[in-house]
Every structure is written in C-alpha cells, then in structure tokens.
Design goal:
This protein is α/β, with parallel strands linked by helices. Helices cover about 40% and strands about 15% of the residues. The structure holds pyridoxal-5'-phosphate.
Length: about 230
C-alpha cells in the first residue's frame, strides 16, 4: 500500500500548489479521499499517513467499511453518492457529512431518522442534466428553507458534480455557477462549504473557491469495477 501514501502526498502537493496560486490558506480546503470500491486496507494506509476524511458513494458499502474500520475512531465518513430514502436510517448514524441532499422528501426522511445533529450539503444539478441527481437551481430556495427549518439537519453548503467535459477547464463555469448560487442564497455565512473538484479538475475547483475537494483516482488509482 506504499503507492497509496505516495499518491496521497502527491495530491497534497497539488492541493497546496492550487491554494497558493489562488492566494488561499491550506486550512481553507478539506481533502476528502474517495474510497468507493477500494479495499479497507487502502483506506487504512491513507489513514496511517494522516488522512481522516473519506468519501463513499453507496450506503451498503459505507456500512460494511465503517464496521471493518471501526477501530479508527476519528475517521470521518462523507456520503457523496445519491441516497435513497429507504437508506436514510442506515446512513444517518455513520456520516459526518452528507453531500447529496437533493429533495425535500429526502431531507425530511433524514431529519426523521437522525438522532443527533446531522450536517448536510445540497447537491445541485448545475448542468441541469436529465440523467443526473441533484436539485435544479430553480428548486434550491425551497430545499434550503426546508433544511433550515428541520429539527436535526444542519445546513452547511452546496455540492456539485459538473457535466463531463473533455478539458478539465470545462468544469470551471459550473464551479463558478455553484459559487454564484451560494451568493444568491445567503452567501458564505449561510452556506460555508462548497464541495466541488475531483481528480481531473481539482485546480479549477480550488480557483473557483472550493472548500471541500473529493479525490479518488489520484489517491487510490483506477477503481476496480463495481462488484469486482
Ligand atoms: C467517484 C467520485 C469522486 C472521485 O472521482 P475521481 O475522479 O476518482 O477523483 C468525487 N465525487 C463523486 C460524487 C464521485 O462519485
């Protein structure tokens, strides 16, 4: 697992460079290591190198891994995949932050199932892509108000996965759009976190103001295929 540590250090250097380029401070961005489909041993290796925030896409996989890695008490799990309403009960006790609330129905279900304050982001479908999950920009106001009015949910910000573009720089307008949406809906005071940026476009996301980046491939290598 030495390659994981080496790759993690490389990503840390990329992030530090990107922050320096934008005149931002290292503590202004949280690096989430996206570990979907990766074995617990790879997560352990990154943890031993100081990584604490990990992102998972599937509730079942998160449940299994959090059990396998229960001895790593200060590890923080981020739920970054679409959450089905019938999985709300399983995910609430495990997640440090849920990045993907995208409907008032899911927000209500998470609020009902949470037994303690639950930090959430709203996923915005910034490209208005038909096949993608995420709240459409014109429905954002209502969803943010619903979360703000919920008993246990703590509104922390916005998240996006921009449309795929051939050049990494193609993501930049969508990152700027997410930041504009934050300004339109209460600014950094109400929505401090912007979760955006993956392996290919990390630098563009940091330049656009990301406070959380979600990096998988550059840390763990190519993912084994689902179920394999
Ligand atoms: C898989 C995934 C990532 C990580 O993508 P990489 O390109 O491997 O860095 C980030 N965010 C979400 C929502 C993902 O599903």
């Amino acid at each position: 697992m030495d390659h994981v540590v080496e790759a993690l250090n490389h990503v840390r250097a990329r992030l530090a460079d990107a922050l320096a380029q934008s005149g931002r401070k290292p503590e202004q961005v949280c690096l989430v290591a996206v570990s979907k489909y990766q074995p617990p041993a790879a997560i352990r290796a990154a943890y031993q190198a100081g990584q604490r925030d990990f992102g998972e896409n599937y509730v079942q996989e998160l449940t299994q891994k959090s059990a396998d890695l229960a001895d790593l008490a200060d590890l923080r799990w981020h739920m970054i995949g679409h959450v089905q309403r019938n999985k709300a009960r399983s995910v609430t006790p495990l997640a440090h932050l849920i990045h993907t609330v995208d409907s008032t129905e899911l927000a209500a279900e998470l609020d009902k199932r949470a037994h303690q304050p639950l930090h959430v982001l709203v996923e915005v479908n910034v490209g208005a892509e038909a096949q993608k999950s995420g709240c459409l920009p014109n429905a954002l106001s209502e969803l943010l108000d619903a979360i703000a009015g919920a008993k246990r949910l703590v509104l922390r910000g916005l998240m996006c996965v921009p449309p795929h573009t051939l050049e990494a720089s193609g993501a930049r307008p969508y990152f700027d759009r997410l930041r504009e949406l934050r300004e339109l809906h209460g600014g950094a005071e109400r929505l401090p976190e912007l979760s955006m940026g993956m392996t290919a476009d990390l630098e563009h996301a940091v330049a656009a103001g990301a406070t959380i980046v979600r990096i998988g491939t550059a840390i763990f290598g190519e993912r084994p295929k689902a179920g394999g």
